[in-house]
Design goal:
With 267 residues, this protein is an all-alpha fold. The chain has eleven helices and no strands. It is found in: Membrane.
């Protein structure tokens, strides 16, 4: 609407989120997005922020599995070995967290589910961009509109309507302002996520997410004054180093493919 009123100032790709064909093509992405946000929040509800990194560390592993099952693309043995170390780091981290009072099996399960859905969401985002002519802003807009409706039944099923109605600060200016800022930040993160997947690949997005979560773990332990064992930190470093090794393996493989493609074109 603003784009039509101020075309010289604001430009926005044309599109109708209520078009049946568009709805049918983008809805799978929005379902995955809704499930991803839900499992992430449930994971954080039951586990500490520091353990969240370990609980969500299997994204790269699931990315390899889904790349083969959905895209029929095989992964090299070197990359699979890196994934094995990621799984080992995850299991070591769960073992060390289980001996603390903060451990939650339910939160860990939600973390694993979130890893699976995030990997699937990244691949589906790459596929969905084709339906909107690679328009990142338009895909983010569609996704947010559809997800807004998909969250409504989840709110009803979890009995959160009464909590919303009875919240005493629901109309307070500071609360509305906080919700607006949170919504803008959420949209910005979603936009950057889609842009990163468009420019690079779903795998690159998952790797950068792993690096972000690692930094988040270090900050969380300092912020909440958490004391962790040496093996707990070892599990984090194993996951980080295995993820970095996986990144390097895939980078070298892409370079070789590019070189072979250049040689073929010259021939």
């Amino acid at each position: 609407m603003l784009g039509r009123r101020y075309p010289n100032v604001i430009t926005f790709p044309a599109g109708n989120p209520f078009d049946i064909d568009t709805f049918r093509k983008i809805l799978p992405l929005s379902i995955l997005f809704t499930l991803m946000v839900g499992t992430n929040n449930l994971c954080l509800k039951y586990v500490g922020v520091a353990f969240y990194y370990i609980g969500r560390s299997l994204t790269i592993v699931f990315n390899v599995v889904l790349t083969y099952t959905l895209l029929r693309q095989k992964t090299s043995y070197k990359a699979i070995i890196c994934c094995v170390f990621v799984v080992f780091g995850f299991l070591l981290g769960v073992d060390q967290e289980s001996i603390t009072a903060q451990f939650s099996l339910r939160g860990t399960i939600y973390g694993v589910m979130g890893s699976l859905i995030l990997a699937w969401y990244s691949i589906q985002t790459k596929k969905s961009l084709v339906h909107v002519q690679q328009e990142v802003l338009l895909l983010s807009f569609y996704n947010n509109v559809y997800s807004s409706f998909l969250f409504l039944p989840l709110i009803l099923m979890n009995g959160e309507v009464s909590a919303i109605i009875n919240y005493e600060h629901i109309f307070a200016p500071w609360f509305i302002g906080a919700m607006v800022v949170g919504g803008l930040c959420g949209f910005a993160i979603g936009f950057v996520t889609v842009l990163e997947i468009k420019v690079t690949s779903p795998l690159t997005h998952n790797i950068s997410g792993t690096a972000k979560a690692c930094a988040q773990t270090v900050i969380a332990t300092q912020w909440y004054n958490d004391t962790k064992s040496g093996l707990w930190w070892t599990s984090n470093f194993i996951i980080l180093l295995a993820s970095a090794a996986y990144t390097r393996v895939k980078q070298l493989e892409m370079q070789r493919q590019h070189e072979r493609g250049s040689t073929t074109q010259k021939a």
